[in-house]
Amino acid sequence: MGVFAADTGHEQVVFCQDPASGLKAIIGIYSTALGPALGGTRFYPYATEAEALHDVLELSRGMAYKNALAGLDLGGGKAVIWGDPIADKSEAMLRAFGRFVQSLNGRYYTACDVGTYVQDMDVVARETRFVTGRSVEHGGAGDSSVLTAWGVFQGMRAAAEHSWGVASLRGRRVGVAGLGKVGKYLTAHLLEDGAEVVATDPSEHAISWIQANHPQVSLVAGVTELITSDIDVYAPCAMGGALNDDTVAVLRATIVAGAANNQLAHHGIEKVLVDRGILYAPDYVVNAGGVIQVADEIEGFNFERAKLRATRIFETTKQILALADVEGISPATAADRLAERRMTDVGRLRQIRV
Ligand SMILES: NC(=O)c1ccc[n+]([C@@H]2O[C@H](COP(=O)([O-])OP(=O)(O)OC[C@H]3O[C@@H](n4cnc5c(N)ncnc54)[C@H](O)[C@@H]3O)[C@@H](O)[C@H]2O)c1
């Protein structure tokens, strides 16, 4: 398999199996230094168990960094269910998963991710109280893309201030790749701020929605056309790996700030961005609004409180960009350092016996 959890720094990795319902799941807990580990459940048809393990280890580590910089008292974890979400998902399987989550007694809180939806979390919640991202009807926070988009907008404003001295996108041309749940809310914030939006999405449904609701948005055929056009900001809001050797070489934007997870295709690409003079607002910093929204549910969801927390992404992004300048490092490295510092400094306090 090539990887053992002991080598990756994870606290705990749990394999869960219920043959009758077909459940095969892995829960990865990277760190509980700041509190219970929070991260969604990805339901995905991995080719192999090794691939599922690799994904949960990467994703749970990422959540620890994201939650730390979002200022949450939560550690980082994630779960994967190995299967086809359309063909294999059932009430029994989700409830079996819920019982495994419950068995961790609060070390891990689950939520939605790719292939799981608020309605699924309502089912999981019948077996465990350590679940967030439930539907509004069940007292949950609902669709997390609302505050994800708000947070991305705040991070973009901070990057605009850093580059141009004004915390606004007014008069700027922003290229949005992906007009899904987050991309469409982000587009609305940008238009309201006075930006010009150019966008692309392969989905006909997404395109007709945007044409009906925001006819002023210009549309282009694909990502290559988008990133080689005259844009000031590039907002990747579709899949991971948007910033690779090919795209960064031709990208014309001054700023990259978007919702997609894992935008940097490989280690080292963050330095290429710096060399090309492109300011990258780290993905996990600016897209933390969604986890802030679902984390708020743990206290009893209050939208205004959650929105206020997501608004602070503006300050956090500014802090990271300033640290990167002072230390002569990339914003991605600066974000990692700040997250590690918080995990160490605040996590250490538990050693003080109370
Ligand atoms: N929803 C959230 O709260 C949240 C939180 C954090 C991060 N994210 C990340 O943000 C990204 C978008 O999430 P979402 O919830 O809007 O997903 P979504 O599935 O609703 O939307 C994704 C959109 O991207 C489009 N797309 C696919 N391939 C594309 C391509 N090559 N070029 C342009 N568009 C393409 C799809 O057609 C779809 O409309 C994902 O990477 C997700 O992991 C989402």
From TrEMBL:
InterPro entries, A to Z: Aminoacid_DH-like_N_sf, Glu/Leu/Phe/Val/Trp_DH, Glu/Leu/Phe/Val/Trp_DH_C, Glu/Leu/Phe/Val/Trp_DH_dimer, Glu/Leu/Phe/Val_DH_AS, Glu/Phe/Leu/Val/Trp_DH_bac/arc, NAD(P)-bd_dom_sf
Alphabetical keyword list: NAD, Nucleotide-binding, Oxidoreductase
Keyword Glycoprotein: no
Binding, NAD(+): 178-183
A GO molecular-function annotation: nucleotide binding
SUPFAM superfamilies: Aminoacid dehydrogenase-like, N-terminal domain, NAD(P)-binding Rossmann-fold domains
GO biological process per UniProt: amino acid metabolic process
Keyword rRNA-binding carried by entry: no
Class of the enzyme per the UniProt entry, highest EC level: oxidoreductase
Domain Glutamate/phenylalanine/leucine/valine/L-tryptophan dehydrogenase C-terminal: start-end pairs: 142-351
Active site per UniProt: 78 (proton donor/acceptor)
EC numbers on record: 1.4.1.23
A Pfam family the protein falls into: ELFV_dehydrog_N
Domain of life from the UniProt record: Bacteria
UniProt similarity note: Belongs to the Glu/Leu/Phe/Val dehydrogenases family.
Protein's recorded name: Valine dehydrogenase (NAD+)
Species of provenance: Allocatelliglobosispora scoriae
Taxonomic path: Bacteria, Bacillati, Actinomycetota, Actinomycetes, Micromonosporales
